[in-house]
UniProtKB/TrEMBL annotation:
Belongs to the FMO family. Its EC number is 1.-.-.-. InterPro entries: FAD/NAD-bd_sf (IPR036188), Flavin_mOase-like (IPR020946), FMO-like (IPR050346). Its cofactor is FAD. Transmembrane segments: none annotated. Gene3D superfamilies: FAD/NAD(P)-binding domain. GO terms for molecular function: flavin adenine dinucleotide binding; N,N-dimethylaniline monooxygenase activity; NADP binding. This is Flavin-containing monooxygenase. Keywords: FAD, Flavoprotein, Monooxygenase, Oxidoreductase. Pfam families: FMO-like.
Amino acid sequence: MVGRVAVIGAGSSGLVCTKICVEEGLEPVCFESSNDIGGLWNFKHVLFIRLIYRSLVTNTSKEMTCFSDFPMPDHYPNYTPNSLLLQYYRLYAQHFDLLKYIHFQVGQFNLRPDFPVSGQQCWERYF
C-alpha cells in the first residue's frame, strides 16, 4: 500500500515537498487555495491582501535562490523579479510533472487525526 501525503500549498516548499514524496514512492496530494502555483510569489492570486509588491525582486542571487536540482535559466538576471521567479516555479512543476498532484482552489480546511484501530496514522480533512 502506497502512503499518501497531504502537502499544504503549492509555493516553493510545497512544490519541493511534492517532488520528494514522488521520488520516495509516496502519493502526494497537494492542496492549493489559489488557481495557480507560486505561493507568496504569485502577485495575481491575492486579490484583497497584497503580500508582495509588483516590482519585488529577490534579495538573494539566482544561484542561491534556485532549487539544487533545477538551476534557473541562464538568461534570468542575477536578482530575480517576482514574475520570473513565478515562471521558474512553473518550469520546475512542469519539468518534474508535479501539476497532476495539485488540487487548485481548495478552500480553507482543517486536518485532524483519525487513527483507526489498526494503529495506522491517518488524517481526516474537514471544512
